[in-house]
UniProtKB/TrEMBL annotation:
Catalyzes amidations at positions B, D, E, and G on adenosylcobyrinic A,C-diamide. NH(2) groups are provided by glutamine, and one molecule of ATP is hydrogenolyzed for each amidation. NCBIfam families: cobQ (TIGR00313), PRK00784.1 (NF001989). Belongs to the CobB/CobQ family. CobQ subfamily. It comes from Actinacidiphila epipremni. The keyword Oxidoreductase does not apply. Coiled coil: none annotated. Residues 253-423 form the CobB/CobQ-like glutamine amidotransferase domain. InterPro entries: Class_I_gatase-like, CobQ/CobB/MinD/ParA_Nub-bd_dom, CobQ_GATase1, CobQ_synth, GATase_3, P-loop_NTPase. This is Cobyric acid synthase. Keywords: Cobalamin biosynthesis, Glutamine amidotransferase. Pathway: Cofactor biosynthesis; adenosylcobalamin biosynthesis. Transmembrane segments: none annotated. The active site is at C332, H417.
Length: 493
């Protein structure tokens, strides 16, 4: 198990790196995360929805993603409720208290999660399990199905990752260890320092003192690596692929609007990988007005996002763009926002709501979620994607079909996530956007997004190989946690 001192400490990336290191050595390995909370998700070939990070880790392990790898996915719909996705299918909305509290659903899922882990363990040589948040969340320990409670049940050795770039990493390591009960401390083999800048020899005395205080070694210090583009759970930024200058004369500027409850904004990564395409998130109407392409990405709250767009002035900026004949793209929830009318008695229960009316489309929310992996041809190029939505779109016209949606003048809309990862289609789409925007932009002919992703996974594996004691990691996998690890008081309350 790879646990972390906090969210975004580097668990997802380190798990992927360890998976790729193992598969390089001929080990059949699978990733696992018992419970994930994220709005970035993926659809497997058999129509199951899982966290996108686990799909990325499966790619690192060179195996097909499966619902077994992420049996519980929580998709926030607001501050106090989430949609619960169990074994790839939604089973309802639930409050935090209804899920975590006494008699809540989480306590009933222990066996489901353990069974999935056992099934993977029987099919692969090794399973690398990612924790969630911090294992020292003492208020949630009783029903833990993802951190060291699961490790205890399955007898998994654990590493604890800390982000030193945030500061306080020694306190985080010590405090996390000291808040674990004795039976869980016995599985915590040691630490990994992540995102270190500077001279590691200056850090080593502190690592020696930490070893003296806890009896646990540090398995490695991973340096801060610029330009890593590995999918995260919810980190809001466009991944930089150092794509380089434009292939043609002009740069194409893309403004992505950060909608409330934004989901699967990884769709923008493929655009950012194109030389000469500049992508950034912005909630400033003037930035949206100035861009060559405005993108409305996915959202788990279509009506809520629409209300925010209108209150912020961004809806007016998008409408002006369309009236002036300037390109707009809506994906999934962003596509629904561009429709004439939205009937929603499922997600927001707002009833019938007027959309922006930029596409001749009517959307009706259905109780059953669409989970699909469509593929076809568009603009003469093969294209594939995945769909995750309750809204059903009825296309009533437009200038041309666009994937399952349509184009109406300078406005495109589709439910397909991931379509821009199809290289030929992405270039064909960008050529049309540039023509409508009046930019002398030519897509570079050789950009292969899949290859770029593979290169990034190999880069993470190289960091693991170079900066972690991989021989010791392999011994953990073979033999489990070392015997006799000391107890660090006070332990769990």
């Amino acid at each position: 198990m790879v646990a972390g001192t906090a969210s975004d400490a580097g668990k997802s990336v380190l798990t992927a790196g360890i998976c790729r290191v193992l598969v390089r050595r001929g080990v059949r390995v699978a990733p696992f995360k018992g419970q994930n909370m994220s709005l970035n998700s993926f659809v497997t070939r058999d129509g199951a929805e899982i966290g996108r990070a686990q799909a990325m880790q499966a790619q690192a392990a060179r195996v097909e993603p499966s619902a077994l790898m992420n049996p519980v996915l929580l998709k926030p719909g607001g501050d106090r409720s989430s949609q619960v996705v169990l074994l790839g299918k939604p089973v309802g909305e639930m409050s935090a208290r209804g899920y975590h509290g006494d008699g809540g659903l989480q306590g009933d899922l222990v066996d489901v999660v353990a069974d999935c882990l056992a099934t993977l363990g029987g099919a692969y040589d090794a399973v690398v399990c990612e924790g969630a948040g911090s294992p020292a969340e003492i208020n949630l320990r009783r029903t833990d199905i993802v951190n060291l409670g699961l490790a205890r049940r399955a007898n998994l050795p654990a590493l604890l990752v800390g982000d030193i770039d945030r500061g306080g990493v020694f306190a985080a390591f010590y405090g996390t260890t000291a808040l674990l009960p004795p039976e869980q401390q016995a599985l915590l083999a040691g630490y990994v320092v992540n995102k270190f800048r500077g001279d590691v020899t200056l850090l080593e005395p502190g690592l020696d003192m930490l070893h003296g205080l806890t009896g646990r070694r540090t398995f490695g210090v991973v340096p801060y690596a610029r330009g890593l583009t590995i999918d995260e759970e919810d980190g809001l930024h466009v991944r930089s692929y150092a794509a380089g200058p434009p292939y043609g004369r002009d740069t194409l500027r893309v403004a992505a609007i950060p909608l409330p409850l934004m989901s699967n904004f990884t769709d923008l990564d493929a655009l950012a990988a194109e030389p000469g395409v500049e992508v950034r998130f912005t909630d400033r109407p003037e930035d949206v007005a100035a861009a060559d392409l405005a993108v409305l990405p996915g959202t788990r709250g279509t009506v809520r996002a629409l209300e925010w767009l209108r209150a912020s002035g961004l809806a007016a900026a998008v409408e002006r763009r369309a009236a002036e004949g300037r390109p707009v793209l809506g994906i999934c929830g962003g596509f629904q926002i561009l429709a004439e009318r939205i009937e929603d008695d499922i997600e927001s229960r707002a009833g019938t709501v007027r959309g922006l009316g930029l596409l001749p489309v009517r959307v009706r929310f259905a109780a059953r979620k669409t989970l699909a992996r469509p593929q076809g041809e568009e603009y003469g190029e093969p294209v594939a994607g995945y769909e995750i939505h309750h809204g059903v779109a009825e296309v009533l016209g437009g200038d041309e079909q666009f994937l399952d949606g349509c184009r109406n003048g300078p406005v495109w809309g589709t439910h397909w996530h991931g379509s821009l990862e199809s290289d030929g289609f992405r270039r064909a789409f960008l050529r049309r956007v540039a023509a409508v925007a009046g930019r002398d932009f030519t897509p570079a002919p050789g950009t292969a997004f899949g290859a770029l992703r593979e290169d990034q996974l190999d880069r993470v594996a190289d960091l693991v190989e170079e900066h972690l004691d991989t021989a010791a990691l392999l011994r953990l996998i073979e033999d489990g946690a070392p015997a006799g690890l000391p107890f660090v008081p006070p332990g769990a309350p």
